[in-house]
Structure formats: C-alpha cells, structure tokens
Design brief:
- This protein is α/β, with parallel strands linked by helices and about 375 residues long.
- It contains 13 helices and twelve strands.
- The strands form two sheets. It has a nine-stranded mixed β-sheet with strand order 10-9-8-7-6-5-4-11-12.
- Helix 6 links the parallel strand 6 and strand 7.
- The longest helix has 22 residues.
- The termini are far apart.
Length: about 375
Amino acid sequence: MTSPMVFGVRKRVIKTLLWMRIAWIALRAYRNPRRAKSAVQRMIAARAKLQRFITGKYARSAGRYFWNFYSPGFPSRAFDRYVECELDRIEPFRGAPPALQSAIFAITKRCPLQCEHCCEWAVLNDAESLSNADLSAIVERVRVRGVAQLLLSGGEPLRRFHDLLSLIELASPEADVWILTSGHGLSEDRARRLRSSGLTGVALSLDHWDAASHDHFRGMEGAYESVERGANRARDAGLVVALSLCPTRAFVSSDNLERYAETARRLGASFIQILEPKAVGRYAGADVALTMPQQRMLEEFADRLNIDPAYHDFPAVAYADFTKRSIGCFGAGDRYLYIDTDGALHPCPFCRIPAGHALDGDFDDALARLQAAGCPARAEEVHAHG
C-alpha cells in the first residue's frame, strides 16, 4: 500500500503554495497590504503557539492536500472560507459574529451495530424525527453561518443513503463533507456515488487492530471486515480515509498503539482520530475515563506519529482531548457544535446540554447561548489536571 503522506521536496512546495494562498486571501479580504500582512503575521504567531498540536504532515487525495483532520483540504473553496473565518477572528473585517468552522450533525438514529460506547444508545433505532427537508434546512443554516467542514454521523449515516447524497450536494460547494461511519454498507458503487456528490472523506470507526476485539466492541461479527473493505473502496473512489479510535482502558498499551498505527498505515489512512471514552450514552454512569498515565501514553503516541521522522509515512493523529486539556475547547458554538438526531444543539457529542433546536427561532441566539455556557467539561478537566 502506497502511503498518502507527502514528504521531501513536494511537502515544502505544498507548504509554500499554501501560505501564498493565505496571503492572497488576506489581501482580498482587507484590501490593504499593511492590514493583510499584520493579520497573516498574527496568524503565524498563533500557529506557533499551537506547534505541538500541528503535525506538519500533508496527505494527498484526489489532487488536494490535507494537514489536519479538522481543517478543509487545499486547494478548495472550503479552504478559502476556513482561512477567511480565521483571519476575521484575528483582525475582524466582516462586521458580523465570528463564523462557525465545523459542525457535527447526526442525521439518523438507525444503525445495525450495538457498540459498547454508543453515544446515541437512548434513541438508537427509534423512529426518525427529522425528514429529509428538515435535514436540508439544518445543513443550510450551518452553511450560511460559515461552516467550512461538515461531519455527518448517526447512528450509521449510510442508512439514509439517498438523504445523505442530497446533503452532501447541498453543502459540498463551500464545505468539506465527511461521514463518520462503521463502513457497514459502503459498497464500491456507493463510494463512487458519494465521491460524485462531493464527499471529501470517510472516518471509519476502528477500535482495535485485532478483528475479534473490534467486532466484540462493536457488537457485530464482521465489523472489522467492513472497515477494511470500506477503507479500500473509499480510497479507490478518491476519498480521504481516516480511522476513529475510542481507546478504552483495556486497549491503551504501547503494543496495541503501535499495532494500531501499523494497521492504519496498511489501510492507507491519512489520519487517526482519538476520542477518549466518556460516561455518556451507553457508558452513562460507568467508570470509563482513562487514567492520567494512559492519557500521557496517548499524548506521546500522538507526538511520535506527528513529529518523529521515523514515522513520516504514518497517518497524522488528531487528539481532541489532548488539545482541550492544553489550550481549551473549540466546541460549544465557538468553532464547532453538535446537532443530535432530533435537531437539538449541543456543545459537542459528549456534552449533552441542549441550547435550543436547529430549526426553531434565531439560530444566532442559540449559538450565543452555547458560547455563553462554554464547555461544561473544561472546568472539570482543568481542576483534575491542576
């Protein structure tokens, strides 16, 4: 398997082109070379403060380059939009509230799996409450609000395949669209149709390098095979592939992490997303939080894959809890939010504190309530980690 990661001279060329594009976007936005230069310099300074969480890696797919699982690929209209929003936060030019950067939208309650950690367990396989028209209206609302990356989840989003195609077509001209999926039902034909509709990539849930262990965690025999087939079909269709890992206490070890990294490279993944287990959904009330030494082990794993030259052809790692513990949470309507299967707005998939409905009233008012409340888990984590 050829790695999608880019290195050497090509990497340096892509980085130069990317920053040239950012400079041009700044000139277009401010119409003043001095203001544009100041804004870009401040962006570079802000990026330097985040250096530990920026991989410096680039993955190539379908003629575009991706350096962060949570950022749109370059070049694209979504990338331009993303940069404009960040510049506006640094030195405002729009005369409007800061735009959202991304949204996670659970579009269905339906799913054939019985996952150990399911966040939607209380409503899993209940009757749908949102019609296709409702789904489209919600996507339109977040699109207008500036979203440059839309992640469609569930349940299993492939269970509403035709609705899924229409949502991708609606959002993709201005945003990178991903699906968060088990891979179950991702045929070659579906992968091609998703790509033709404008889908950017698939984030396949893979919670162990060992097939039997993953199948047990997901409550379905053959779940591991669905991920393997899904990764191959997605890649062949020109989609970016990411793997999403929920590392339980039983999983976190040096050996398991190294084997998982090797599996991700073998499957041609560009990214590994780490999402720590939380006591929500099916885990509600359970003692599932990782220990601090386990968190440190995961942080070192992320650093190793992101920075160590020996891992230059391995996927980059996106570890949201690591970032949140260090510099704060970007959810709660700041840069992203979560919309559940009933259309309620939440800070994130793990902080279920509704702040209104995506179809009711003034969307900006609901966002303001989310932002005012902030991330409810942040204060607890800061206290716990000193």
